[in-house]
Amino acid sequence: MSRTAVFFHAHPDDEALLTAGTMAMLAAEGHRVVLVVATAGERGLADVEPGEDLGKTRMAELYKSAAALGCARVVLLGYGDSGLSSSGGVAEERPDNAFIDADSEEAAERLAKVLTDEGADLLTIYDPAGGYGHPDHVQVHRVGARAAEIAGTPVLLEATVNRDPLLKGLRLASRFYKFPPEFDIRTFERAYSPGETITHRINVRRFAGQKRASMAAHVTQAAGGEGPRTLAVMLKVPAVLYRLIFGTEWYVRRDLPEGTRLTHPFDHWPTGHG
């Protein structure tokens, strides 16, 4: 049975990092996959030419990523990228229409209309911490949860990362590699989700090629700032290791008991929903 899954993200490239494998898997299974972004990511660090419209460029990259994943539709809600302060919090200077300043109810209504128009069976958002805490990601959680409630979307999944192996890996790496002074491993003790709360562990290794293509589409995000960006580092990982490292995607579904272990987004379909 074909269903419709809507993936809600804050900026172009977020889909590549957290949900690309799941999106490719569902599209390959014949489900309708819709990608919604709140902003065009026009205030992100990026490697661009002087005078280039970063938002327009990043949306073009998003469409290329979506094509690689088999998305049927891409929707931009049209809010401004809120940006980040130097400390990683809410930026003081931001556009008048910044997503973080948007009325949550109004934004939820706009997303709910997409869900209703699509007859969405599933919506993905982020965990309450917004993953690593970006203000726009926290807003995605608030807005998306409310939109699912308004639209009556049966399944709501929070895209996240298993914090436990991430912390273990960072601590091990710190013994052999000197991280920059501003990098504090302790911040990851509160980021993403602990393993015991994760309900879905999706094996997406068969779709590593599509996931890698999704990452590669976001050319502007491979550089910018004072050094290599996360995507650039990930894309340098050899193919065999890439499948191992990025071959699992994690989600939390709050209406299921802690300790639930599922392997597909549509597992444990809610009673009364077809």
From TrEMBL:
Keywords of the record: Zinc
UniProt-listed Pfam families: PIG-L
InterPro entries xref list: GlcNAc_PI_deacetylase-related, LmbE-like_dom_sf
Entry superkingdom: Bacteria
Chain ranges passing through the membrane: none
Biological processes annotated in GO: glycoside metabolic process
GO molecular function annotations of the record: hydrolase activity, acting on carbon-nitrogen (but not peptide) bonds, in linear amides
Keyword S-adenosyl-L-methionine tagged: no
UniProt keyword Zinc present: yes
Protein name in UniProt: GlcNAc-PI de-N-acetylase
Taxonomic source organism: Sinosporangium siamense
